[in-house]
Amino acid sequence: MKSIAMSDALRPLRPVVATFVLLGVLWWGFDQLLDRRAHPNRDITAGAQAPERLVLEAAPGGHYVVPGEINGEAVRFLIDTGASHVAVPGAMAQRLGLSRGAPLVVETAAGRVRAHATRLGVVRIGGLTQYDVRASINPSMSADFVLLGMTFLRHVDISQRDGRLILEPGSGR
């Protein structure tokens, strides 16, 4: 009787394995493409070595989302020129160790909500840094990003060209 080697027995499975490997690589590549499209500014770094002039690409919904830092901790910011101040979701404020100050009522897109005043020691996006930034902690906000409002943006020159948002140090710096 003839013995069959293990590699000969598995030979019919080679196309199946190759197909699964190819599908896995395609899945990973497509996932990377979708992530890049959803977060076009994800590679922007914050800190002293980062550029002060930021050119942001809009995410698919037309919003500008950029990674940054609050008190040295990584966060994602949604640029919101309609927000009068920086607004931090309650759960994120707790993670960041922010102290709740005086209670206040703020107007949001969802209506009036109760929030708490707070101060952010350092806020950074790219090479743009602001100190002692007035903000609010919004316990009813469940987003995974911080609204970067005018208490930060008023110190920045903002322009929009060719579907890009450009942030630069303010001229009154």
From TrEMBL:
GO terms for molecular function: aspartic-type endopeptidase activity. The chain crosses the membrane at residues 12-30. One of its GO terms (biological process) is proteolysis. It holds the Pfam family gag-asp_proteas. Keywords: Membrane, Transmembrane, Transmembrane helix. It comes from the Bacteria. InterPro entries: Aspartic_peptidase_AS, Clan_AA_Asp_peptidase_C, Peptidase_aspartic_dom_sf, Retropepsin-like_bacterial. SUPFAM superfamilies: Acid proteases. This is Aspartyl protease-like protein.
